[in-house]
Amino acid sequence: MNYSTPVILETPRLYLRQPREDDWRQLHAYYGDAECMKYTAGKAMTEWESWRKLASLIGHWQMRKYGSYALEERSTGNVIGVAGIEFPMGWPDPEIQWGLSRDFWRKGYASEAVKAIKNMADEFVPTLPLISIIHPGNVNSTHVARAAGASFEREFLFRDDTWHIYRHSAPSR
Question: Which residue stretches, if any, does this entry annotate as coiled coil (predicted)?
Answer without folding.
Answer: none
